[in-house]
Design brief:
There is one protein chain. By secondary structure, the protein is of the alpha+beta class. The chain has a single domain (9-63), classed as Alpha-Beta Plaits (2-Layer Sandwich), CATH 3.30.70. The protein is built from two helices and four strands. Bound molecules: iron/sulfur cluster (SF4) (2 copies). One iron/sulfur cluster binds next to α1.
């Protein structure tokens, strides 16, 4: 709680909690909250490498600020 999410990527609600992104992230930036809740990416830990994007089977990891999806771009 209280951790800011990554300014580079965010995880959408269609995340099926498979955990592939957790396994692949070398920075341990992914956070797996309680059951039924979407995974999150922590701002302090994620350098925005983008590796997790390709491992997601449902395309739930999206670049913040990508076209048509800029509502979480922040600053
Ligand atoms: S973009 Fe890179 S550092 Fe950030 S959560 Fe994905 S794999 Fe980890
Ligand atoms: S790889 Fe995609 S579907 Fe699997 S836990 Fe990560 S964000 Fe969710």
């Amino acid at each position: 709680m209280g951790n800011k999410v990554s300014q580079f990527y965010r995880i959408e609600k269609n995340c099926i909690r498979c955990g592939f992104c957790l396994d692949i992230c070398s920075w341990d930036a992914l956070d797996a909250p309680g059951k039924g809740r979407t995974f999150t990416i922590e701002e302090d830990l994620c350098p925005g490498c983008g590796i997790c994007v390709d491992c997601c089977p449902v395309g739930a990891i999206r670049r913040v600020g990508a076209s048509g999806d800029d509502d979480a771009a922040g600053r």
